[in-house]
Design brief:
Elements lengths: L2 H13 E2 L3 E2 L5 E2 L2 E2 L1 H5 L2 H15 L7 E5 L3 H14 L6 E4 L12 E2 L9 E9 L3 H12 L3 E10 L4 H7 L3 E7 H5 L1
Parallel strand pairs: 5-6, 5-8, 8-9, 9-10
Antiparallel strand pairs: 1-4, 2-3, 6-7
Length: about 180
């Protein structure tokens, strides 16, 4: 079984649920991908980091990976660790939902690993409409980073790719909804 096949199996076992749910976008759906169940699993986290690193390792000039807390946190960490193990270290960063209420008041954690103008990739566990990705892109750019594109564990194939691409960024998905449900 390949690493991708094994990760798909873990996603199906731990993250896919057939039930009615309200998504972050406000939309109703009859299924749910809880990516954190996979990305926080020992093997699932490792495989996620490995496949995300594979997705970005040949992108010209990538200097960081990160996204909105909480979904991006384990992905950014796993990708960064795998990048180190592969001899091409890429630091991770986390974008807070609101600025830190004390100390530095920072929006972005991991700042000392990224100089202004650093080229970064936004990572997500699930993309539906692309709203969270676009929010992360905006905040990262406001913090002086240059966003190249987005990598997601699962693209629900509900307009996110089109919305992200309409803003001038690319989206790579490890899996689409169709691939998971095949």
């Amino acid at each position: 079984m390949t690493e991708k096949e094994r990760l798909k199996k873990i996603i199906i076992e731990l993250s896919y649920e057939k039930r009615n749910v309200t998504l972050a976008s406000g939309r109703q759906s009859d299924f749910y991908f809880d990516g954190k169940q996979t990305t926080l699993h020992p093997e699932g986290g490792y495989l996620t980091g490995k496949l995300f690193f594979e997705a970005i390792k040949d992108v010209e000039g990538v200097e960081g990976v990160g996204g909105l807390t909480l979904g991006a946190d384990p992905i950014a960490t796993a990708t960064s660790v795998v990048s180190f193990l592969e001899g091409k270290p890429v630091p991770g960063f986390i974008i807070r939902k609101e600025p830190k209420g004390h100390g530095t008041g920072a929006w972005l954690e991991g700042r000392k690993n990224l100089k202004p103008g650093s080229k970064v990739v936004i990572v997500e566990d699930v993309v539906t409409s692309g709203g969270s990705s676009l929010k992360a892109i905006k905040r990262a750019e406001e913090e002086g980073l240059v966003v190249l594109g987005v990598v997601t564990l699962v693209d629900r194939e509900e307009g996110g790719r089109e919305n992200i691409e309409a803003e001038g960024y690319w989206l790579k998905s490890i899996f689409t909804k169709a691939e998971i449900l095949a």
